[in-house]
């Protein structure tokens, strides 16, 4: 699409926001993020007995 400024995500405009209305996300704070990987690859470690066991890459991200 010529002139598309959405980076190829034309349907992005149709997604509802999960952000809290009126909350200023520019402030420091703890934020939960979800990272999805291709084919659900375990790039940052694995879950064992209900606990996340970080590998080297996971420890780098955690730091």
User: How many beta strands in the DSSP annotation?
Assistant: 2
Order of helices and strands: EEH
Measured between the Cα atoms of the first and last residue, the distance is 39 Å
Described by the principal axes of the CA atoms, the overall outline is: extended
Figure out the total of helices.
Answer: 1
In what range is the share of β-strand residues? 5-15%
Structure description:
The structure is a single chain. This protein has 63 residues and is of the alpha+beta class. The protein is 11% helix and 13% strand. The protein is built from one helix and two strands, in the order E-E-H. It has one helix at residues 56-62, and strands spanning 45-48, 51-54. Strands 1-2 form a two-stranded antiparallel sheet. Strand 1 and strand 2 (51-54) form a beta hairpin. The radius of gyration is 17 Å and the shape is extended.
In short:
11% of the residues lie in helices and 13% in strands. The protein is an alpha+beta fold and 63 residues long. The longest helix is centred in the C-terminal third of the chain and has 7 residues.
């Amino acid at each position: 699409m010529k002139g598309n400024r959405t980076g190829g995500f034309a349907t992005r405009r149709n997604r509802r926001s999960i952000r809290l209305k009126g909350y200023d996300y520019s402030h420091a704070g703890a934020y939960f993020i979800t990272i999805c990987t291709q084919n659900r690859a375990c790039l940052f470690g694995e879950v064992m007995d209900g606990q996340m066991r970080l590998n080297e890459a996971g420890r780098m991200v955690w730091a």
